[in-house]
Specification:
Serine Threonine Protein Phosphatase 5, Tetratricopeptide repeat
Length: 278
Protein backbone atom coordinates (compact mmCIF):
# COMPACT_ATOMS: atom_id res chain seq x y z
CA UNK A 1 0.00 0.00 0.00
CA UNK A 2 0.97 3.60 -0.45
CA UNK A 3 0.61 6.43 2.01
CA UNK A 4 -0.70 9.78 0.83
CA UNK A 5 1.02 13.10 1.48
CA UNK A 6 -0.92 16.19 2.44
CA UNK A 7 1.42 18.48 0.52
CA UNK A 8 1.21 16.85 -2.88
CA UNK A 9 -2.04 14.95 -2.67
CA UNK A 10 -0.12 11.96 -4.03
CA UNK A 11 1.32 8.93 -2.30
CA UNK A 12 4.37 8.62 -0.18
CA UNK A 13 5.74 5.40 -1.59
CA UNK A 14 5.80 3.07 1.38
CA UNK A 15 5.94 0.02 -0.84
CA UNK A 16 8.51 -1.42 -3.14
CA UNK A 17 8.82 0.35 -6.45
CA UNK A 18 7.17 -1.28 -9.48
CA UNK A 19 10.61 -2.53 -10.52
CA UNK A 20 11.47 -4.09 -7.18
CA UNK A 21 9.88 -7.55 -7.04
CA UNK A 22 10.19 -9.18 -3.67
CA UNK A 23 9.82 -12.65 -2.18
CA UNK A 24 8.82 -15.85 -3.87
CA UNK A 25 7.11 -17.76 -1.10
CA UNK A 26 3.80 -17.37 0.68
CA UNK A 27 3.57 -13.90 2.12
CA UNK A 28 5.78 -12.42 -0.55
CA UNK A 29 6.22 -12.72 -4.26
CA UNK A 30 5.23 -15.21 -6.86
CA UNK A 31 3.06 -17.85 -5.25
CA UNK A 32 2.46 -15.99 -2.00
CA UNK A 33 0.47 -13.02 -0.82
CA UNK A 34 1.29 -9.38 -1.27
CA UNK A 35 2.15 -7.19 1.66
CA UNK A 36 0.44 -3.91 2.27
CA UNK A 37 2.29 -2.84 5.39
CA UNK A 38 5.68 -1.41 6.08
CA UNK A 39 8.21 -3.87 7.38
CA UNK A 40 6.81 -6.74 5.34
CA UNK A 41 7.67 -8.01 1.90
CA UNK A 42 5.79 -5.93 -0.64
CA UNK A 43 4.65 -8.17 -3.44
CA UNK A 44 2.22 -6.11 -5.40
CA UNK A 45 3.95 -3.10 -6.97
CA UNK A 46 1.73 -0.24 -5.93
CA UNK A 47 2.55 3.40 -6.47
CA UNK A 48 -0.65 5.37 -5.87
CA UNK A 49 -2.13 8.15 -7.93
CA UNK A 50 -3.31 11.61 -6.88
CA UNK A 51 -6.57 11.68 -4.98
CA UNK A 52 -9.37 13.80 -6.42
CA UNK A 53 -12.45 15.15 -4.69
CA UNK A 54 -13.69 14.27 -1.23
CA UNK A 55 -14.11 17.00 1.33
CA UNK A 56 -11.46 19.02 3.09
CA UNK A 57 -8.93 16.32 2.29
CA UNK A 58 -9.47 16.59 -1.46
CA UNK A 59 -6.24 16.56 -3.41
CA UNK A 60 -5.26 19.15 -5.97
CA UNK A 61 -1.90 20.15 -7.32
CA UNK A 62 0.27 21.43 -4.50
CA UNK A 63 0.42 24.93 -5.90
CA UNK A 64 -3.34 25.13 -6.44
CA UNK A 65 -4.51 24.32 -2.92
CA UNK A 66 -5.34 27.53 -1.05
CA UNK A 67 -3.92 27.90 2.42
CA UNK A 68 -6.57 27.07 5.03
CA UNK A 69 -7.91 29.95 7.06
CA UNK A 70 -6.49 30.15 10.59
CA UNK A 71 -8.76 28.37 13.06
CA UNK A 72 -10.84 26.74 10.33
CA UNK A 73 -11.68 23.04 10.15
CA UNK A 74 -9.48 22.84 7.07
CA UNK A 75 -6.50 24.10 9.08
CA UNK A 76 -7.23 21.62 11.87
CA UNK A 77 -7.47 18.80 9.34
CA UNK A 78 -4.20 19.78 7.67
CA UNK A 79 -2.44 19.92 11.02
CA UNK A 80 -3.82 16.58 12.15
CA UNK A 81 -2.86 14.95 8.87
CA UNK A 82 0.71 16.23 9.12
CA UNK A 83 1.02 15.10 12.73
CA UNK A 84 -0.45 11.68 12.01
CA UNK A 85 2.06 11.14 9.23
CA UNK A 86 4.89 12.22 11.50
CA UNK A 87 3.78 9.81 14.21
CA UNK A 88 3.57 6.99 11.70
CA UNK A 89 7.01 7.74 10.28
CA UNK A 90 8.41 7.82 13.82
CA UNK A 91 6.98 4.38 14.50
CA UNK A 92 4.27 5.52 16.93
CA UNK A 93 1.48 3.61 15.25
CA UNK A 94 -1.00 3.97 18.11
CA UNK A 95 -0.74 7.75 18.18
CA UNK A 96 -0.88 7.92 14.38
CA UNK A 97 -4.09 5.86 14.34
CA UNK A 98 -5.63 8.00 17.08
CA UNK A 99 -4.75 11.19 15.20
CA UNK A 100 -6.16 9.98 11.89
CA UNK A 101 -9.39 9.08 13.68
CA UNK A 102 -9.53 12.54 15.24
CA UNK A 103 -9.15 14.00 11.76
CA UNK A 104 -11.91 11.81 10.36
CA UNK A 105 -14.33 13.03 13.01
CA UNK A 106 -13.88 16.51 11.55
CA UNK A 107 -13.72 15.46 7.91
CA UNK A 108 -15.13 11.95 7.36
CA UNK A 109 -14.71 12.38 3.59
CA UNK A 110 -10.90 12.65 3.79
CA UNK A 111 -9.95 9.74 1.52
CA UNK A 112 -6.21 10.07 2.04
CA UNK A 113 -6.56 9.88 5.80
CA UNK A 114 -8.69 6.75 5.47
CA UNK A 115 -6.10 5.23 3.13
CA UNK A 116 -3.27 5.93 5.56
CA UNK A 117 -5.32 4.69 8.50
CA UNK A 118 -5.99 1.48 6.56
CA UNK A 119 -2.24 1.11 5.98
CA UNK A 120 -1.57 1.27 9.71
CA UNK A 121 -4.45 -1.03 10.62
CA UNK A 122 -3.29 -3.65 8.13
CA UNK A 123 0.21 -3.29 9.51
CA UNK A 124 -1.18 -4.24 12.91
CA UNK A 125 -3.00 -7.21 11.47
CA UNK A 126 -6.48 -5.67 11.68
CA UNK A 127 -7.34 -6.58 8.12
CA UNK A 128 -11.10 -6.22 8.37
CA UNK A 129 -10.84 -2.70 9.78
CA UNK A 130 -8.33 -1.78 7.07
CA UNK A 131 -10.69 -2.99 4.36
CA UNK A 132 -13.56 -1.06 5.93
CA UNK A 133 -11.52 2.16 5.79
CA UNK A 134 -10.60 1.54 2.16
CA UNK A 135 -14.24 0.80 1.36
CA UNK A 136 -15.23 4.20 2.78
CA UNK A 137 -12.41 5.94 0.92
CA UNK A 138 -13.41 4.33 -2.37
CA UNK A 139 -17.05 5.25 -1.76
CA UNK A 140 -15.89 8.89 -1.67
CA UNK A 141 -13.58 8.53 -4.66
CA UNK A 142 -14.75 5.58 -6.77
CA UNK A 143 -12.48 6.51 -9.67
CA UNK A 144 -9.31 6.73 -7.59
CA UNK A 145 -7.00 4.12 -9.07
CA UNK A 146 -4.53 4.34 -6.18
CA UNK A 147 -7.20 3.38 -3.67
CA UNK A 148 -8.32 0.46 -5.82
CA UNK A 149 -4.74 -0.75 -6.10
CA UNK A 150 -4.20 -0.46 -2.37
CA UNK A 151 -7.33 -2.42 -1.57
CA UNK A 152 -6.28 -5.05 -4.11
CA UNK A 153 -2.94 -5.28 -2.28
CA UNK A 154 -4.63 -5.99 1.04
CA UNK A 155 -7.10 -8.43 -0.48
CA UNK A 156 -4.36 -10.32 -2.31
CA UNK A 157 -2.18 -10.40 0.80
CA UNK A 158 -4.94 -12.26 2.56
CA UNK A 159 -5.73 -14.65 -0.29
CA UNK A 160 -8.90 -12.89 -1.46
CA UNK A 161 -7.78 -13.17 -5.07
CA UNK A 162 -11.18 -12.87 -6.75
CA UNK A 163 -11.99 -9.63 -4.96
CA UNK A 164 -8.51 -8.27 -5.69
CA UNK A 165 -8.95 -9.10 -9.36
CA UNK A 166 -12.24 -7.20 -9.43
CA UNK A 167 -10.56 -4.07 -8.08
CA UNK A 168 -7.72 -4.36 -10.58
CA UNK A 169 -10.06 -4.79 -13.54
CA UNK A 170 -12.04 -1.82 -12.26
CA UNK A 171 -8.81 0.18 -12.18
CA UNK A 172 -8.04 -0.85 -15.75
CA UNK A 173 -11.25 0.79 -16.91
CA UNK A 174 -9.48 4.10 -16.24
CA UNK A 175 -6.63 3.21 -18.57
CA UNK A 176 -4.01 0.55 -19.10
CA UNK A 177 -0.77 0.70 -17.17
CA UNK A 178 2.05 -1.77 -16.78
CA UNK A 179 1.71 -1.48 -13.01
CA UNK A 180 -1.92 -2.56 -12.95
CA UNK A 181 -1.41 -5.28 -15.55
CA UNK A 182 1.60 -6.71 -13.72
CA UNK A 183 -0.37 -6.81 -10.50
CA UNK A 184 -3.36 -8.35 -12.24
CA UNK A 185 -1.18 -11.07 -13.73
CA UNK A 186 0.27 -11.90 -10.33
CA UNK A 187 -3.15 -12.07 -8.70
CA UNK A 188 -4.56 -14.30 -11.44
CA UNK A 189 -1.55 -16.60 -11.19
CA UNK A 190 -1.81 -16.84 -7.41
CA UNK A 191 -5.46 -17.72 -7.82
CA UNK A 192 -4.38 -20.85 -9.68
CA UNK A 193 -4.84 -19.65 -13.27
CA UNK A 194 -1.27 -19.29 -14.44
CA UNK A 195 -2.11 -19.64 -18.13
CA UNK A 196 -4.61 -16.76 -17.94
CA UNK A 197 -1.96 -14.63 -16.23
CA UNK A 198 0.18 -14.62 -19.37
CA UNK A 199 -1.98 -12.13 -21.27
CA UNK A 200 -1.82 -9.22 -18.79
CA UNK A 201 1.86 -9.85 -18.04
CA UNK A 202 2.81 -9.93 -21.72
CA UNK A 203 0.86 -6.72 -22.21
CA UNK A 204 2.68 -5.16 -19.24
CA UNK A 205 6.02 -5.97 -20.89
CA UNK A 206 4.79 -4.41 -24.14
CA UNK A 207 3.80 -1.22 -22.34
CA UNK A 208 6.91 -1.06 -20.15
CA UNK A 209 9.76 -3.05 -21.73
CA UNK A 210 12.16 -1.64 -19.13
CA UNK A 211 10.10 -2.82 -16.16
CA UNK A 212 12.09 -5.43 -14.30
CA UNK A 213 9.00 -6.36 -12.31
CA UNK A 214 6.93 -7.16 -15.40
CA UNK A 215 9.69 -9.37 -16.83
CA UNK A 216 10.30 -11.06 -13.48
CA UNK A 217 6.68 -11.99 -12.85
CA UNK A 218 6.26 -13.09 -16.46
CA UNK A 219 9.22 -15.38 -15.84
CA UNK A 220 7.51 -16.72 -12.73
CA UNK A 221 4.40 -17.64 -14.73
CA UNK A 222 6.35 -19.19 -17.61
CA UNK A 223 8.26 -21.26 -15.04
CA UNK A 224 5.02 -22.51 -13.49
CA UNK A 225 3.78 -23.45 -16.95
CA UNK A 226 7.04 -25.33 -17.67
CA UNK A 227 7.83 -23.01 -20.57
CA UNK A 228 11.48 -23.00 -19.60
CA UNK A 229 13.15 -21.12 -22.50
CA UNK A 230 10.61 -18.29 -22.16
CA UNK A 231 11.01 -18.29 -18.38
CA UNK A 232 14.78 -18.09 -18.71
CA UNK A 233 14.56 -15.16 -21.13
CA UNK A 234 12.21 -13.25 -18.83
CA UNK A 235 14.30 -13.83 -15.70
CA UNK A 236 17.47 -12.85 -17.55
CA UNK A 237 15.86 -9.64 -18.78
CA UNK A 238 14.71 -8.81 -15.24
CA UNK A 239 18.21 -9.42 -13.90
CA UNK A 240 19.75 -7.26 -16.60
CA UNK A 241 17.34 -4.40 -15.91
CA UNK A 242 17.72 -4.68 -12.14
CA UNK A 243 21.04 -6.23 -11.12
CA UNK A 244 20.15 -5.81 -7.44
CA UNK A 245 17.19 -8.16 -7.81
CA UNK A 246 18.64 -11.38 -6.45
CA UNK A 247 15.39 -13.24 -7.02
CA UNK A 248 15.71 -12.73 -10.76
CA UNK A 249 19.16 -14.35 -10.67
CA UNK A 250 17.73 -17.13 -8.52
CA UNK A 251 15.02 -17.64 -11.12
CA UNK A 252 17.67 -17.90 -13.82
CA UNK A 253 19.52 -20.48 -11.75
CA UNK A 254 16.41 -22.49 -10.99
CA UNK A 255 15.41 -22.67 -14.64
CA UNK A 256 18.94 -23.61 -15.73
CA UNK A 257 18.87 -26.39 -13.13
CA UNK A 258 15.63 -27.64 -14.64
CA UNK A 259 17.20 -27.48 -18.10
CA UNK A 260 20.14 -29.64 -16.92
CA UNK A 261 22.69 -26.86 -17.32
CA UNK A 262 24.35 -27.09 -13.90
CA UNK A 263 27.50 -25.06 -14.59
CA UNK A 264 25.51 -22.05 -15.82
CA UNK A 265 23.01 -22.52 -12.98
CA UNK A 266 25.83 -22.38 -10.43
CA UNK A 267 26.97 -19.02 -11.82
CA UNK A 268 23.43 -17.62 -11.60
CA UNK A 269 22.98 -18.85 -8.03
CA UNK A 270 26.31 -17.25 -7.07
CA UNK A 271 25.15 -13.94 -8.54
CA UNK A 272 21.92 -14.26 -6.59
CA UNK A 273 23.83 -14.70 -3.33
CA UNK A 274 26.07 -11.75 -4.14
CA UNK A 275 23.12 -9.51 -4.98
CA UNK A 276 21.33 -10.57 -1.79
CA UNK A 277 24.30 -9.56 0.34
CA UNK A 278 24.44 -6.05 -1.13
Amino acid sequence: MSLFSERSGGPDDASSSPDTPSGTSSGSTGGGGSRGAAGRDQEVPFAGAPVSGGGAGAATAAGDRPAPEPGSDAEKVAGLFARAKQYGEAGDTSLAITTYRQLLKIDPRHARARNNLAFLLEQRGNVQAALQELELAIAEEPDNVALLLNRAAVLSAHLKFDAAEQDLRRALRHGESAEILTTLGMVISKGGRAKEALEPLRRAVELAPNSAAAHYYLGEVYNRLDQLPAALASYEQAAQLQPSNWRAFKGVGNVLDRMARPAEAAVAHRKAREAQRK
